[in-house]
Amino acid sequence: FVSLSTTSPILLLPPLMHAITATGKDATTFSHEITYHASCEAVYRALTDTYDLSRMMRAPATSDTKVGGEFSWMGGAISGKYTELEKNSKIGMTWRMRDWADQVYSTVAISLEADGAGVCKLSLKQDGIPVTDKFGNGGTDRATKNGWKERILVVGLSKIIGFALREDDDE
Hints:
Blueprint: E1 2-3, E2 9-11, E3 19-20, E4 27-36, H1 40-48, H2 50-57, E5 62-63, E6 70-73, E7 78-86, E8 90-97, E9 106-114, E10 120-130, H3 140-161, E11 164-169
Antiparallel strand pairs: 1-2, 2-3, 4-10, 4-11, 5-6, 6-7, 7-8, 8-9, 9-10
């Protein structure tokens, strides 16, 4: 990360794509923890495998699972690049929704930790979620948070790996 000021960090990507992370009053952070009755290997695979992502989201998905590899979920409604991948334990991403302002990306950090036999605790933190979309409509932060909780972490992953045992978020 290179910081131009204390409120405007810029995430540097390859020359054709410079991503700007929203900060300050223009952005929010979302944190969530959820525990699954499944192995961390199963959870990691469900979040990175093209076939599992498509099944989970009931929409086309792509996933080039390598650092710098691109992903696209829900037919391109969500896209980004992997910034960190530690098999079965960490997933880092630059992440954006199609209706966000051009070149605006948030950062997502997902950690997976075994919490007993066949139990995996997922911790997610997303920074730099813009509060408005490229049209000036508010609620982008709420839509992002609800999408993670309702479409991906609870309902989506439950279809692939089984129901969550318990969850906590930043509310």
